[in-house]
Amino acid sequence: MHGLGLHTNKIKVKNIPLLVWLTLIYVHFVAPGILNNKNFAPLPTSFWALHPYEDAFWNRVQLAHDRYFNPILHPKYTKRAMNNSTLYESLLKQNFSDVTNLTSIRRNFDKLPQQMQDFVRHMQRRDYPTLLRPDGVCGAGAKDEKEPTLLLLAIKTTELNFKNRQAIRRTWGQVGWVAGYVRRVFLLGKESHEEPSVDSSKLLQLENDHYGDILQWNFTDTFFNLTLKDVLFWSWFSDFCGQTRFIFKGDDDIFVNTPNMVTYLQHQLMKPRAHKTMKDFMVGDVIREAMPNRVSDSKYFIPDAFYRGLYPAYAGGGGVVYSGLLAKRLHSVSKGVHLFPIDDVYVGMCMMRLKITPVHHPGFFTFDLPQKDAEQLCSYHNILLVHRRSPDQLVKLWAGTLSTQSPLIYSGKMSLQSL
Ligand SMILES: *[C@@H]1O[C@H](CO)[C@@H](O)[C@H](O)[C@H]1NC(C)=O
Ligand SMILES: *[C@@H]1O[C@H](CO)[C@@H](O)[C@H](O)[C@H]1NC(C)=O
Ligand SMILES: *[C@@H]1O[C@H](CO)[C@@H](O)[C@H](O)[C@H]1NC(C)=O
Ligand SMILES: *[C@@H]1O[C@H](CO)[C@@H](O)[C@H](O)[C@H]1NC(C)=O
Ligand SMILES: *[C@@H]1O[C@H](CO)[C@@H](O)[C@H](O)[C@H]1NC(C)=O
Ligand SMILES: *[C@@H]1O[C@H](CO)[C@@H](O)[C@H](O)[C@H]1NC(C)=O
């Protein structure tokens, strides 16, 4: 950056310090996680070095995209963009198909499993229309727009999982019980095989009329399409949720100890320098240096014809918390990262581009508690969340939580507003 001779701390583009723009432009993506592992080829140190994983489909399309936006290969282009936020925004928005010629990369396509071929056919598209939304506001519970929201619960669910949603609404996902500072939204796609006897879209619409907490887009709700829920949620969030401090994003079959979570988050805001650290804040069950799953009948199967390299550090998608500030940065950076069929890994890839590592918290049990602890109600006092609980179990656990925990007094107001 020295070569540019810019006083980076002084120049601002549209109120965004130039340094931030530079970081946005100068992050190059390489297949993540392979830095210090001797089982893998070292990262190429310069942009012209041959990429070790060029034969894997995803690595290849991402590389094509990164070359296109490489400021060393296209210095005039990127320099102009740095000086012109309109141009820069339009670059970010650029449709991947303008940049990546899939036809020329299709060598490996036929080797991919059927489901992955389907993913690849649609992986350039992310502008699915919204079918239902919580009435223009940031989730159910957003009655008083003047007060900043502490926590927005964003829960991945599917049309037919009405029972799970109801249980969440009645238990840990209740809004308004801490002075209106908790809001809720469910994230859905479309059911792929609707039963002809049930018009689930009609029911869902009624549900949204009643609860106002449904955000649904017109894409097929499959496992490989879950990543769309992240990118589309970030986009919606950036438009409607300016004041929200934290997002909890998770599955509809988990139990969250919301009182503990709220207390924990309030403490984060009261820490010194919170206004600085919040832009990088993500906490969860962090998985490091994971190998892609190569077992062909697994739901998580990623063949090496599709992706090579380790995964970046990522927080398990069962439940993760991050700041609203970070959500907006993820929204921006994700425009330059090709969709990946596993949602939490994709978020990890975007985090890596922002040069942020998610922080591990031992209270996130995305793989459940040890058997004997799972049976003891008191085991749930200190946790933040635990994975896989049925709707009936949620009701029981919540009753236990309420009876053993002192009522929560919301005390974070001052620190919220001082941010
Ligand atoms: C940015 O634009 C201004 C005028 O609009 C010009 O003076 C300046 O040299 C440009 N900077 C770069 C890095 O192109
Ligand atoms: C910035 O880029 C946009 C889009 O390319 C262009 O229309 C506009 O004239 C540029 N503005 C400046 C000051 O160069
Ligand atoms: C993409 O690549 C194929 C094969 O190299 C070529 O025939 C086609 O014209 C290219 N398409 C575009 C839009 O560049
Ligand atoms: C991307 O661009 C191509 C060609 O310009 C167009 O056919 C396609 O509809 C665009 N897709 C999106 C999602 O904008
Ligand atoms: C949703 O997508 C389907 C095709 O997948 C299309 O037939 C339908 O018209 C779309 N509905 C809306 C409301 O956009
Ligand atoms: C994702 O959704 C789109 C739009 O409905 C669909 O065409 C595609 O098959 C889905 N992809 C996967 C991998 O299920």
TrEMBL record:
It catalyses: a beta-D-galactosyl-(1->4)-N-acetyl-beta-D-glucosaminyl derivative + UDP-N-acetyl-alpha-D-glucosamine = an N-acetyl-beta-D-glucosaminyl-(1->3)-beta-D-galactosyl-(1->4)-N-acetyl-beta-D-glucosaminyl derivative + UDP + H(+). Pathway: Protein modification; protein glycosylation. Its cofactor is Mn(2+). Keywords: Glycoprotein, Glycosyltransferase, Golgi apparatus, Manganese, Membrane, Signal-anchor, Transferase, Transmembrane, Transmembrane helix. One of its GO terms (molecular function) is N-acetyllactosaminide beta-1,3-N-acetylglucosaminyltransferase activity. GO terms for biological process: poly-N-acetyllactosamine biosynthetic process; protein O-linked glycosylation. Its EC number is 2.4.1.-. The chain crosses the membrane at residues 16-35. GO terms for cellular component: Golgi membrane. Belongs to the glycosyltransferase 31 family. PANTHER family: BETA-1,3-N-ACETYLGLUCOSAMINYLTRANSFERASE, HEXOSYLTRANSFERASE. Interacts with B3GNT8; this interaction greatly increases B3GNT2 catalytic activity, independently of B3GNT8 enzymatic activity. This is Hexosyltransferase. It comes from Monopterus albus (Swamp eel). The lineage of its organism: Eukaryota, Metazoa, Chordata, Craniata, Vertebrata.
